[in-house]
Amino acid sequence: MTLLVIGSTGTLGRQIVRKALNEGFQVKCLVRSFRKGAFLKEWGAELVYGDLSVVESIPLSLYGVTAIIDCSTSRANDLYNIALIELKAKYILIESALKAGIKRYIFFSIFNSFNYKNIPLVMLKLMIEYRLKISGLNYTIFHLPGFFQGLIPQYALPILDKQLIWITSESSLISYINTQDVAKMTIHSLSISQFNKKTLPLQGNKPWRSLDIINLCEQISGRRAQINTIPIYLLNSLKNFTRLFQWTWNISERLAFIEMLSHKYSTSAQMKEILYILKIDEKELEELDVYLQEYFKRIMKKLKELNYQILSNQKNVSKIEF
Ligand SMILES: NC(=O)c1ccc[n+]([C@@H]2O[C@H](COP(=O)([O-])OP(=O)(O)OC[C@H]3O[C@@H](n4cnc5c(N)ncnc54)[C@H](OP(=O)(O)O)[C@@H]3O)[C@@H](O)[C@H]2O)c1
What we know:
The chain is of the alpha/beta class. The chain has twelve helices and nine strands. The chain has a seven-stranded parallel β-sheet with strand order 3-2-1-4-5-6-8, with helices on both faces. The protein has a two-stranded parallel sheet with strand order 7-9. The structure holds NADP nicotinamide-adenine-dinucleotide phosphate.
């Protein structure tokens, strides 16, 4: 089976490529920069040029492909480009997949997306979900919460860097997940017919509040966080004011995204069923505590090495001076 991974240089995409190669799949990666995708080639994937904003490049990239895993998402901060990439390009991708006789199509959307139709990016995701559902393709749509990897710039780095962390006053529970676990479940799902034509949530096995994550980071790193709390009513006004949705751009939008992921209802029973079908033990999913401990261990070691280098360089300089 040959997979085409779109968005393969991204946080999730690269884990999908890594897992697929480990499992013996032939992997093609659609990349818009061969230089940026060089590490994927080193891993053993084939690079094919493609840019979702140049829609003519899409059909050609499907040659010889059995399944598509679309991990791409736009980061542009104007609505025109988002609509072009998230909607037009993805419609063309779905049409081209039909013509090319693609056997499986995997798409990632956002946890609780159906409750947030008023947010432009979410609405575009929902439109693609609908197009897939009526396409006749064998699709699987996974609804994802936040990634462990996203917590590093959000909480861990600001603590290390003594930067302010913004949280909402009514922080709710989110079951963050490691992208490696999403990759594992996605690749396993390819061979399971029960996942055909399904929309399913994938989430980690423990829900977390922002403050608990910050406390955990403080405990592990031994450093104090500087926290600023934004009231929900203010967040909502800011959200209405800024209109456009993209969680990486600014604080209000990022916090709005967090609130969206954390809408209060449980999907854990469905998640248990998914794991059962995939024959994956719940305990195999990485715990956030373990992930953060590993992260801080590595970063603290690097910081110590760096300090040591700086100190020894200073000593050498002072030897030269005196
Ligand atoms: N991050 C989260 O917490 C989260 C939560 C819920 C759902 N999701 C969904 O999960 C999926 C993966 O998210 P992620 O955070 O891993 O994304 P990401 O790290 O931002 O990666 C985005 C990928 O899309 C590619 N891309 C962007 N514009 C492109 C274009 N015009 N043509 C071709 N490729 C293009 C990027 O390529 P370049 O390297 O060339 O820029 C990159 O490989 C997305 O569908 C996202 O909506 C993410």
